[in-house]
Each structure stands twice: as structure tokens, then as C-alpha cells.
Amino acid sequence: MNNGQPNSLDVSKQAAGEVVVSIKDVNFSYAPGERQILSGLNMEFRRGQVVAVMGGSGCGKTTILRLIGGQYTAESGQVLFEGQDISKMSGAELMAARRRMGMLFQFGALFTDLSVFENVAFPLREHTNLSEELLHSLVLMKLNAVGLRGARDLMPSQISGGMARRVALARAIALDPPLIMYDEPFAGLDPISLGITARLIRDLNNALGATSLLVTHDVEETFAIADYVYFIANGRIGAEGTPEELSRSTDPFVRQFLDAAPDGPVPFHYPGKTLEEDFGVRSL
Ligand SMILES: Nc1ncnc2c1ncn2[C@@H]1O[C@H](COP(=O)(O)OP(=O)(O)OP(=O)(O)O)[C@@H](O)[C@H]1O
Fold first, then answer.
1. Cβ density class 46-79: b for 16+ within 10 Å, e for less
2. Distance from residue 73's CA to the centre of ligand 1 (Å)
3. DSSP state, 82?
4. Which of 178, 16, 183, 7 is nearest to 108 (CA)?
5. ipTM score of the complex?
């Protein structure tokens, strides 16, 4: 798939809007001398697209979100947001950039002591000086977009997990961010809520003209809504393409994911000592 040759994937990339996030030759480990998490990683996220980042557990998907959010800095290479190198931003520039990134973290936790309305209002109160009247209208618009305008006065304990995820979605888009990052947005959802959430991510992205970056394990739902998919393996891109291209792929790495096969190029074991070393036995 990713053999360095120009192919049809480049065409689908060119057809999309301008690049919003660009990751160029990024190397990263959490501490000097520790295991390399990302090595020579290259990715692009374009305006108007829903792009999925998939791969085995611990392959570095969340780490990519952290680098884009500026929580961590690449050892080498560049992470550009709207053309600006995140590692070179001043504190104020980074704060401004983060306001332009909506984030929905794993399980999209809501503030349990705030109502649905106040949860969505939170980023607006934090980052803007809007009048109470305008803020009210904006929150209702966001709640309307996720179908929960009528639930505005409920507390998080009074709504289902699927509804809570939609409130978290409304909160993530409260400031109309050009980039929305989702970390496992489908985790723990029942099949119906999962389908609704996936559709919402697509529809909200279209309505906002935004870029959505989706870290997920759910192949079926993701392939139904994504424009482009990156599979990460060994700290770099193992495969990439549109859902259609990847579905047709015979690449063993891609097939392992799509067919949910336990055996394949992706190892089951986290790298470490051998069994023999840990148990003090000699291999037979
Ligand atoms: N703060 C940290 N300090 C040190 N190592 C970390 C830290 N965060 C993550 N790691 C390690 O970095 C690797 C990549 O983690 P990351 O969370 O990016 O993976 P992931 O692909 O999102 O995994 P999953 O799908 O299981 O959520 C893992 O091996 C993890 O143990």
C-alpha cells in the first residue's frame, strides 16, 4: 500500500480542501532514550474531511492527538496546524490554536455537577465574552444539532451514555473549531448510539466545514463515514487510503484489521523481554 509510489490515494488527497494539520517526518518518544513511539511519521488532514487514525492498541494514536494539541513536542520533524509549527508557538499562540481545536476525549466525560446546558456553555464562558442572550442561543443551536435541545435542563446522571456522548460532541463544537479531534468516540456505546454518533460526526463536520480526526477501533462505523483512513504500525503509516481502497486491499496488515484476525503482522505482545528471560527457562 504505502510503497512510496504515487497512486490513486494521492488523487483522493488532492481533491480535498487545504491542509489543516500536517505531520512531517515526526519522531517521538515519551522520554529520552525510551521506546520510540513514532518514527518518521507523515500525515495530512485536510479541510472538509473526516480522517480516521486506526491501529493496534498502544501504537501511538492518542500520542498523535497530543502532538497536535501541543501537549507534547516531537523530538524531530514538524507538526503544523494551519501552516504554523506547533512547537514554535508562544504560550499565547498555542492557547489560541487550541481554541480552534475541538476535543472529544475517550468517554467524553461531562462535568457531573453541571446541567447539559452548562456543559455545552462551559467553553463559551471560558473563552468568549458573549452576552448571556447570545450564549443561550448558541448553546441551544449546538444542542439542537445533536438532537438534545429538549434535554438542556437535565443533569448528566439523568441521561443515557449515548446522550452524554452527544452532549460532549455539542461541547466539542461549541466554539465552531476548524479542527475536531475525537479519541475513541464510539467506546462503550450500544450499536444504535454508535451509529447515531458516527453519523453526527460526519454531519457536524459537513455543517461546520471542519476537519475531523477520528482515533478509533470501530472499522465498520468508521469506514461508513471517513474520507480517508490511516493505519499506524510500528510508529509509522502501515497503510492508508479511502475506505473503498482499503476494503479492496489484500495487504496482510490491512486484512488483519478489517477481518479482525488475531494473527497477522501486528504482534499481540507488547515489546519486552522474551518468555525465556522472564521465566528463567531455556527455550526448547
Ligand atoms: N505519558 C506517557 N508516558 C510514557 N509512555 C506513554 C505515555 N502515554 C502513552 N505512553 C506509551 O506510548 C505508547 C502509545 O500510547 P498511545 O496512548 O498513543 O496509544 P494508542 O494507539 O492511542 O493506544 P490505545 O488504542 O490502546 O488507546 C504506549 O505504548 C503507551 O504505553
1. bebbbbbbbbbeebbbbbbbbbbbbebebeebeb
2. 15
3. T
4. 183
5. 0.96
How far, in Å, is the centroid of ligand 1 from the Cα of 137? 39
**Pairing relationship of beta strands 101-104 and 179-183 according to DSSP bridges:** parallel
Nearest CA to ligand 1 atom 30: 58
* 89-128 confidence digits (pLDDT tens): 999 999 999 999 998 876 668 999 999 999 999 999 998 9
Domains of the chain: 47-71+90-266 (3.40.50.300)
Query: Residue 238: what pLDDT?
Result: 92
Question: Which residues have CB under 8 Å from 158's CB, separation 6+?
Answer: none
Retrieve residue 204's grid coordinates.
457536524
Which tens digit of pLDDT belongs to each residue from 147-206? 999 999 999 999 998 899 899 999 999 999 999 999 998 888 888 888 988 999 999 999
